[in-house]
Structures are given as structure tokens and as C-alpha cells.
Automatic annotation (TrEMBL):
Cross-referenced InterPro entries: UROD/MetE-like_sf, Uroporphyrinogen_deCO2ase_HemE, Uroporphyrinogen_deCOase
Keywords (A to Z) from UniProt: Cytoplasm, Decarboxylase, Lyase, Porphyrin biosynthesis
Source organism of the structure: Thiobacter aerophilum
GO molecular function terms listed in the Swiss-Prot or TrEMBL record: uroporphyrinogen decarboxylase activity
Entry similarity comment: Belongs to the uroporphyrinogen decarboxylase family.
Protein name listed in UniProt: Uroporphyrinogen decarboxylase
Pfam families: URO-D
Length: 352
């Protein structure tokens, strides 16, 4: 059954819409006081992620506050490697860490994709619960990290400024790195399809670190595996099309190549002019993005002006989902988000 407000889904499929829909990457997060209250009750970020009741609560918070056109499952991209037994934990002020990063050849050879129902059932329970709580008002987005981005964390053992350990393995032992990517590709595909079967109505693949690669390395170690994931996704569930979005931060230089892998939409960061991007991809895909998240610190008037500039740059017609060019900052004033949502809903109508 299609949601009552299916503007987001129709825009992804380039069907006519009355206005440009908007959702925000990381829209349920620390910039919201209600999220912080729920997180405090949960005890820790990981406890929050693994409790379907809390996940449902925080997923719905920005929908209730801002009137966004889509909800996105509250979870973390590192649930897959955690299910593989790498021992995910979050160090205060340092971000995600793994107790057992992939360094030894035997560990990589023994790596297997987890069964989503068995090892990630708490995520699927959250998807089902969120869909029920949304009461068919707006669609629910499922998501996963890309095979390459997950591999970066799995090899490095956490975040990094340069991912030196990851790139050393990539260049020195590409056979081992490809082995990780092959397992991750199976895991990501299975995970996203399980989310779709549980109720996700669109899916996004976050290739957060793909943009740090050279062009040949991006094609070999990221894009090739993104193509495999997209090809393996469920395209229609219960008679309704399930669109897919691919977002590579820093991937504007490869826009045409990303648009050719079979996804329905390409997410843009703020370094790519959306009007030029539209000319480059033609009618192949919808585009999502792409306001610089820092604009939200400049006040409602500037937010409204920048929103209008981006809408005008994209131009007339469907195929645009408004979003930020990356996740929202935890320090963002909530009133700026309200101003952005109102501006997009108001100012986009003349373009449709």
C-alpha cells in the first residue's frame, strides 16, 4: 500500500509531484532535544540502536516536529560488521571502534555474510514497528553502508583521517581487500532486501568514504560492488516499486558512472552544482540533495535563500528530492531545519 504522502517515492521515480519533497540525512539525531532525552533513557548509543521501541521513537521524532516527506530507519551503518563478530563499541568522543579489526589473512578468508533474520533481527523488528507507527502517513527509508565504506571501518578498526591501513591493504593485497568486499556485497544486498521485506519502501546506500579513492580505485573497489548490490535488490515488493538511492560523498566527478549502475537516484554532496548534475545525467536518474549542512547555522533567511537557489538550479519538473549534502550537524538549531522544510515545500511549487 502506498503512503498517503508518496511525494518522495514519486519524485525518485521522476513522476509528477506537486512540490519537491524533503528529508534530511541523519534527521533523527543529537540536534533534537527529544532525541537526547530518549538516548539518555536508552543508556548508550548501541543500546538505542538495538532496541526497536527506542528506534521507533526517535525515527518518528523529526517527522512529528518538521513534517518531512519521508522517515528513515534509525540505526547505524556498522550493524553488519558487528553481526560478523568484529565487536562494535562506541568510545566517548571518538566514535565507533571495533575490538577485532580485520588484519590477518585467515580472518579475512573466514569472513562470512550474516543472516539478517538471525543476526540483525532487532533492525528488522524496528522496521516493522516503525512502519506500523507511521500509520502509512509517509514512506520509510531503509539503508546500509556500502561494501567499500564498511570495509574501511572493518580494516581500520574505526574512523580515520586518511584510512592508511585500509589503503595499504587495498594496494598491497588487493586479493584480500576484494575478498572483504565480496562478503560485504552479499551482506549488504541481503540486509537491504530483508529491510524491504520487513517494510522499507525505499533504500539508500551510503558510500561515505568512496570519494577518498582515485578514479581507477573507485571504479574497482567501490563502484563495481555498488553495481552488484543494486542489481541484487528487490525492485518491487507487494506490487509497489521500491526505489534505490546511491550516495557517494565526494563522488560528483563520477556522477555519470554512478547514474549508470541501475539505481533510481544519485545523492549529491554540496560540491556539485545540481543544475549541472541534472544536465549530465539527463533522464537516467533522479537527484537528491544538496545543501551544505553549514548553511543551517546562518539563520532562517539565508536558509530560505539557499533553498530557493538550489530549487532554481534544478529547475522545472520532477526528479529532485531535496536533502543536505551530508548528515546534519549535532549543533544545528532545530528552528533552521523547520525553516528549511517550510521553504522547500513553499518555494518549490512553482517548479512543478
Amino acid at each position: 500500500m502506498k503512503p498517503k504522502n508518496d511525494t518522495f517515492l514519486r519524485a525518485l521515480l521522476k513522476e509528477p509531484v506537486p512540490y519537491t519533497p524533503i528529508w534530511i540525512m541523519r534527521q533523527a539525531g543529537r540536534y533534537l532535544p527529544e532525541y537526547n532525552e530518549t538516548r539518555a533513557r536508552a543508556g548508550s548509543f548501541l543500546d538505542l540502536c538495538k532496541n526497536p521501541d527506542f528506534c521507533t521513537e526517535v525515527t518518528l521524532q523529526p517527522i512529528a516536529r518538521f513534517g518531512l516527506d519521508a522517515a528513515i530507519l534509525f540505526s547505524d551503518i556498522l550493524t553488519i560488521p558487528d553481526a560478523m563478530g568484529l565487536g562494535l563499541y562506541f568510545a566517548e568522543g571518538e566514535g565507533p571502534k571495533f575490538e577485532r579489526p580485520l588484519r590477518e589473512e585467515w580472518e579475512i578468508r573466514d569472513l562470512t555474510a550474516p543472516d539478517p533474520e538471525t543476526h540483525l533481527g532487532y533492525v528488522l523488528d524496528a522496521v516493522r514497528q516503525i512502519r506500523k507507527a507511521l500509520a502509512n502517513e509517509v514512506p520509510l527509508i531503509g539503508f546500509s553502508g556500502s561494501p567499500f565504506t564498511l570495509a574501511c571501518y572493518m580494516v581500520e578498526g574505526g574512523g580515520s583521517d586518511d584510512f592508511r591501513t585500509t589503503k595499504t591493504m587495498l594496494y598491497r593485497r588487493p586479493d584480500l581487500f576484494h575478498r572483504i568486499l565480496q562478503v560485504n556485497t552479499r551482506a549488504v544486498t541481503d540486509y537491504l532486501n530483508a529491510q524491504i521485506r520487513a517494510g522499507a519502501q525505499a533504500v539508500q546506500i551510503f558510500d561515505t568514504w568512496g570519494g577518498m579513492l582515485s578514479s581507477p580505485a573507485y571504479e574497482e573497489f567501490s563502484l563495481a560492488y555498488l553495481r552488484q548490490v543494486v542489481a541484487g535488490l528487490i525492485k518491487e515488493h507487494e506490487g509497489v516499486r521500491v526505489p534505490s538511492i546511491v550516495f557517494t560523498k565526494g563522488g560528483g566527478v563520477w556522477l555519470e558512472k554512478i547514474a549508470a549502475i541501475g539505481c533510481d537516484a544519485v545523492g549529491l554532496d554540496w560540491t556539485c552544482e545540481i543544475g549541472e548534475a541534472r544536465k549530465r545525467v539527463g533522464h537516467r536518474v533522479a537527484l537528491q540533495g544538496n545543501m551544505d549542512p553549514m548553511v543551517l547555522f546562518a539563520g532562517p533567511e539565508v536558509v530560505r535563500e539557499e533553498a530557493h537557489r538550489i530549487l532554481k538550479s534544478y529547475g522545472q519538473g520532477s526528479g529532485h528530492v531535496f536533502n543536505l549534502g551530508h548528515g546534519i550537524s549535532q549543533f544545528t538549531p532545530p528552528e533552521s531545519v523547520a525553516a528549511l522544510v517550510d521553504a522547500v515545500h513553499d518555494l518549490s511549487r512553482p517548479f512543478h
